[in-house]
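[09:14] KT: can someone run the structure on this one? pasting the chain below
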Amino acid sequence: MPSPLPSTLLGFARRLVSSAHGATAVEYTTLVALIAVAVIAALDMTGLNIRNVLGTAGNAMT
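[09:31] RB: done, structure tokens below
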């Protein structure tokens, strides 16, 4: 017997998207996802810059 969980989640997702609260939740989720992508990109760039600075400092000491 298949689990009712997938159909329950699908029904929940349909109700969430069709309601006004669901639209707000989807908008906030999208906003949080975009902020997370921006933070990850910024940390990645910062990490590369720190690695270069520390590499240069280490090379200058040797």
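[09:33] KT: thanks! The radius of gyration is 22 Å.
[09:34] RB: yep, looked fine to me
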